[in-house]
Amino acid sequence: MTERMTYVTHTGLRQRGWTDRMVRDLLGAPDVQGRSPRRWSVAPVRLYLLARVEAVERTEEFAASGGTSGAAAARAAAEARRQAVLAAIRAEPIRVPVLPEPELEMRAVRHRRLLGAGPGGGPGPGAGSAGSLTRWQVDYLRHALRRYDTLLDGLFGDTGRAEAERLLRTRVYAAIARAYPRLAGECRRRTGPGGRGG
User: pLDDT for 100-155, tens place per residue?
Assistant: First the structure.
């Protein structure tokens, strides 16, 4: 798996204690600039690579520019954000689409085919073992519930994000297992130690 590149917006820098002048003097040009595909805005989106931001925050120049208190405030803000995201994940009801078994099987096979599994775009109906079909059904349902991944927005640090992803994954698979008891074993396998998650 490739390492995910994480970026901070200009607003995110302010939340970390950066001023506009500090951004201009210490970071310079953004690493990525353009229009947001997620929402329409006249202002361009400016993204700064988190690793670069954190490296600058450790420098003497950052401390001399007044960033020391800003860094402490940024850590406090990041912790508050982490707690808020975890609380939102715990409180959010996970609604799993309940489908008749033949419909779920058909959608799971179609989803698998769209992913391009196997020669010729994937298996045909009835292909694979019962275990494969169970995995495909859980894959399809997890994909159908991807909208809950937006609950993770705003988490930048590896530790907080990993914890939130783990909690969300556990809640989503628990909801699938409740809606489809026959898939509970596969859901447990994915959330247990060494589970592949997804």
Answer: 999 999 999 999 999 875 444 444 444 556 778 999 999 999 999 998 888 887 66
CB 46 within 8 A of CB 14: no
Phi, psi for 159 (deg, rounded to 5): -65, -55
135, 81 in Cβ contact below 8 A? no
Q: What angle do CA 76, 82, 85 make, to 5 degrees?
A: 140
Q: H or E stretch including 9?
A: strand 7-9
Describe the crossing of helices 158-179 and 130-144 by its angle, rounded to 10 degrees: 120
**160's tokens:** 């907080």
- Domains of the chain, by residue range, sit at 7-83, 92-191
Contact status, residue 13 vs residue 25, Cβ threshold 8 Å: no
Q: What is the DSSP code (8-state) at residue 155? A: -
pLDDT tens digits, 34-78: 766 555 656 678 888 888 888 888 888 887 776 655 556 666 667
Exposed/middle/buried for 173, CB within 10 Å: 0-12, 13-18, 19+?
buried
| CA angle centred on 47, ends 163 and 20, rounded to 5° | 110
DSSP, collapsed to helix, strand or coil, labels residue 185 as helix
